[in-house]
Specification:
97 residues; mainly alpha; 4 helices; 85% helix
Length: 97
């Protein structure tokens, strides 16, 4: 039995597994469609997983320009979600007072 461990097979396997793992937060967002916090958490998880997917593809293809894009998405991508969560929390505190 000969196992194929060529870079294209490994790349396809990891990308396929990561795409399947992206479906879990989408299911959570669909399941809790009334809770804004669960939806924001699901979308931030999708952003992090897609950035890691970009990094894996960049390493396996030896494309460091794509890797830099993945690092920028990973480090700056969720800052907007954090700001939006803070604004929503402040609005909720304002309405409760």
């Amino acid at each position: 039995m000969n196992i194929d461990l060529s870079p294209s097979f490994v790349l396809n396997f990891f990308v396929g597994a990561m795409v399947i793992s992206l479906l879990i937060p989408l299911y959570q967002a669909w399941k809790f469609n009334n809770d804004i916090w669960e939806i924001m958490l699901a979308f931030s998880s999708i952003a992090a997983k897609s950035a890691v997917m970009i990094l894996v593809i960049a390493v396996l293809r030896d494309d460091w320009m794509l890797g830099v894009v993945g690092v920028i998405i990973l480090s700056v991508g969720n800052a907007g979600f954090m700001l939006l969560a803070h604004i929503i929390r402040r609005i909720g505190e304002y309405k409760n007072d």
